[in-house]
Write a structure and sequence with these properties.
two-stranded antiparallel sheet, elongated, membrane, transmembrane, transmembrane helix
Amino acid sequence: MYNCTMTYKIGQSHLSLPLTHIISFFFPLFLLHISPSFSLSFSLSLSLSHSIFLSLSHYISLSLSHTIFLSHSICIISFFLSHTQYNFFLSISLTLYFSLSHSISNLIPVLV
């Protein structure tokens, strides 16, 4: 399993962030401009919850099935937190979003 990371030097220490952290935080905000069905609260809650999940999964080994299950759980939690109206386009967008973010993290080799 590969993880693409970006390393930043802060003082004397280095901070490595998987590239998917950055993608997962900004992608729902990008979807906000594509579909009017996305509300700002939903986009922000999805961004934050998925970023937290990716941070945890970076340090805790999870199988692919657990990763998918937790990702969809986060999606459902974000949906209820934001009180948005669920529709077909939203479900397709979120499925693609989670599939792409995890595929990218598994396919791209590590960058230091």
